[in-house]
């Protein structure tokens, strides 16, 4: 199968991406990877701030080449009447619009759902914000770092008695981008198979996307008055599952929380007494005796290298694995076998970026080009799609509309 010519599931869909930074653009990246024509609208002066965030090379963020992949960049001044009219014309020819401005901003520009769906009833309008489009918090600035706390994630993350910690990632933004993506795809199915050809509004909030990940914390509190607290590297109520240090100062993760798995784990670490101990025969008993179990595993791993520990665990069919850095992942044979890295050309040099998943056997996604230069597709989109002449483009550029 030639992946460069294989059809993709979203071929023929046109998406208009407005907004900046991470949540909205991540949604657009996923859609573009799987075939959608994503037209990214950026400010004429600086473009999306992501272009200048984190690690730069030749003045551009290396992250941008991944996040901006497969997108067509055009520059439009959304605060100008001409710029707003360009967006209206593009929205009239699009299947999906993504925006992640503060609630009310698009309406202020005359670009809200009612404005745009009047000319294109089938438009699916995805809105991403910190707290949603309604409610007392709607107008607050919605940064993922804050919304992760409001949505409950930060409360359970970290070690008891210490300050809550965050992963060194903008997890709330990415989770919200995935929720927006799911909403868009469900709306597409409803529109295209529901017989009414109507689009709808998707309201994806960062704090709600985080809240959606909170498993059983609500019913546990309401039904048993239990507040799940931070638990370090363990998982409350499931034993054993933890992170263990080895002699080479590397950590491994061992999950021995199934009843039969626990027995195999204890036999593998030469503790047949614990394997047959009735106190540990089910998860409830193991939870009660968690310190004793973890101490036994820690004693065993602390006298072996991580490679030795993982080899023993694999031989005993006990779920386990290393904690990989990005360098480890790039060398990992399984990552390579699953084609999780793609190479693009940036200014004549090869750059590795991550593939995007899920993997689809008949219609896989792919990277066609890295994040483009600012405004690289102005002529293609505004001339070919909207029919503006060269003179009109020059005039709009002179007026600051593009």
Notes on the protein architecture:
- The protein is α/β, with parallel strands linked by helices and 402 residues long.
- It folds into two domains: 14-213 and 338-399, Crotonobetainyl-coa:carnitine coa-transferase, domain 1 (Rossmann fold); 241-245 and 251-322, formyl-coa transferase, domain 3 (2-Layer Sandwich).
- The chain is built from 18 helices and 13 strands.
- The chain has a six-stranded parallel beta sheet with strand order 5-2-1-6-7-8, sandwiched between helices. Strands 9-10-11 form a three-stranded antiparallel beta sheet, covered by helices on one side. It has a two-stranded antiparallel sheet with strand order 3-4.
- β3 (56-57) and β4 form a beta hairpin.
- α1 crosses α7.
- The longest helix has 23 residues, at 171-193.
| CATH topology category name of the largest domain | Rossmann fold
Helical amount: 25-40%
- The shape, in one word, is elongated
Q: How many individual β-strands? A: 13
> What's the average pLDDT?
96
What's the CATH architecture name of the largest domain?
3-Layer(aba) Sandwich
CATH class of the largest domain: Alpha Beta
Radius of gyration: 25 Å
The number of helical elements comes to: 18
């Amino acid at each position: 199968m030639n992946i460069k010519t294989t059809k993709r599931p979203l071929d023929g869909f046109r998406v208009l991406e407005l907004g900046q930074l991470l949540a909205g653009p991540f949604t657009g990246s996923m859609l573009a990877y799987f075939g959608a024509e994503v037209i990214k609208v950026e400010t004429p002066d600086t473009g999306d701030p992501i272009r200048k965030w984190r690690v730069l090379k030749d003045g551009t963020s290396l992250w941008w080449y991944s996040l901006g992949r497969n997108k067509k960049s055009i520059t439009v001044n959304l605060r100008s009447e001409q710029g707003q009219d360009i967006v209206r014309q593009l929205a009239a020819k699009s299947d999906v619009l993504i925006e992640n401005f503060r609630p009310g901003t698009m309406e202020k520009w005359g670009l809200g759902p009612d404005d745009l769906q009047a000319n294109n009833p089938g438009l699916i309008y995805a809105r991403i914000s910190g707290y949603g489009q309604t409610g007392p918090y709607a107008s607050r600035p919605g940064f993922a770092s804050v919304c992760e706390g409001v949505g409950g994630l930060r409360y359970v993350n970290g070690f008891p008695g210490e300050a809550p910690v965050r992963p060194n990632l903008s997890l709330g933004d990415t989770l919200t981008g995935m929720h927006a993506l799911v909403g868009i795809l469900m709306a597409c199915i409803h529109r295209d198979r529901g017989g009414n050809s109507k689009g709808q509004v998707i309201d994806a909030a960062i704090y709600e996307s985080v809240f959606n990940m909170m498993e059983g914390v609500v019913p546990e509190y309401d039904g048993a008055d239990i507040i799940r607290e931070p638990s370090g590297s363990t998982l409350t109520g499931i034993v054993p599952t933890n992170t263990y240090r080895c002699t080479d100062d590397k950590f491994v993760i061992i999950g021995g929380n199934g009843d039969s798995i626990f027995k195999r784990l204890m036999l593998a670490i030469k503790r047949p007494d614990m394997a047959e101990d009735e106190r540990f025969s089910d998860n409830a008993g193991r939870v009660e005796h968690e310190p004793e179990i973890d101490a036994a595993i820690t004693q065993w791993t602390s006298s072996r290298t991580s490679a030795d520990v993982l080899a023993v665990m694999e031989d005993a069919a006990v779920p386990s694995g290393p904690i990989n850095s990005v360098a480890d992942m790039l060398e990992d044979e399984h990552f390579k076998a699953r084609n999780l890295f793609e190479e693009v050309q940036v200014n004549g040099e090869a750059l590795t970026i991550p593939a995007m998943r899920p993997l689809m056997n008949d219609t896989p996604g792919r990277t066609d080009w890295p994040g483009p230069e600012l405004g690289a597709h102005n002529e293609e989109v505004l001339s070919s799609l909207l029919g503006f002449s060269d003179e009109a483009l020059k005039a709009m550029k002179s007026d600051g509309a593009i």
